[in-house]
Design brief:
The chain is mainly beta. It has one domain. It is built from 3 helices and 21 strands. The strands form 5 sheets. Strands 6, 8, 11, 14, 16, 17, 20 and 21 form an 8-stranded parallel sheet that branches. The radius of gyration is 17 Å and the shape is globular. The relative contact order is 0.11.
């Protein structure tokens, strides 16, 4: 991800993309980042998986590794609507990671009433462009929960009634829209007042909280 950009434009190409870790995507996103002081935009290549393909992977119970990926939209609210599910029906997400990914659309990022399973849930290094971020009533049943260096937008950050069973939790250097760096321990009151509906139930077993 290119830091310090003021805006970006995206082109989707029907060209297969493979990350340095060997993860393959069916298409490629060309992200043109506009950086202050530079006449021409800087271009970064990322993998691309469309909303429908992501939802089909959830249907199949597959692990969702979206590392180094451009994600236009992810909403469990919309997922439930397209599957004729109840508004608050639990959705199981296995192995969800989106390290160094770009959530580039205008819609809310909605993980409400999800159960996260697997070794790790990670948004490490991810950049969330706009909208609210909703984890209300989610349940993390992962060994690791990582928001390290995650950039959140200026919208509402809803972490209400979240249940965390992870052994290790990191919000280290997460950054909110105006550049404020936060951590779940020292800046919790600030986050609650300005962006958050925090009512976290954390049930750690031999746990380590990294801030």
């Amino acid at each position: 991800m290119i830091p310090g950009h003021s805006s970006f434009k995206t082109e989707i190409k029907k060209l297969k993309f493979e990350t340095n870790a060997g993860l393959r995507f069916p298409a490629t996103a060309l992200i043109h980042f506009q950086v202050e002081g530079r006449e021409k935009p800087l271009v970064e290549l990322m993998g691309y998986l469309g909303e429908k393909e992501i939802y089909k992977a959830i249907d199949r119970g597959e692990e969702l590794n979206l590392d180094n990926c451009y994600i236009e939209k992810f909403s469990l609210r919309d997922y439930r609507l397209t599957r004729n599910l109840e508004e608050k029906e639990v959705v199981i997400l296995k192995g969800f990671t989106a390290r160094n990914s770009l959530f580039g659309g205008d819609a809310n990022l909605d993980f409400s009433n999800a159960i996260f399973e697997g070794i790790e849930f990670s948004l490490e290094g991810a950049w969330i462009n706009r909208g609210d971020v909703i984890f209300e009533s989610a349940h993390f049943k992962t060994e690791h929960l990582t928001f390290h260096n995650t950039h959140f937008p200026e919208g509402y950050f809803n972490f209400k009634n979240v249940h965390i069973d992870a052994a290790e939790v990191s919000f280290k250097n997460c950054c909110f829209g105006d550049g404020t760096k936060g951590s779940i321990s020292t800046d919790l009151s600030l986050v609650r007042e300005r962006w958050c509906s925090m009512s976290v139930r954390w049930v750690p077993a031999n746990s380590a909280l990294s801030v």
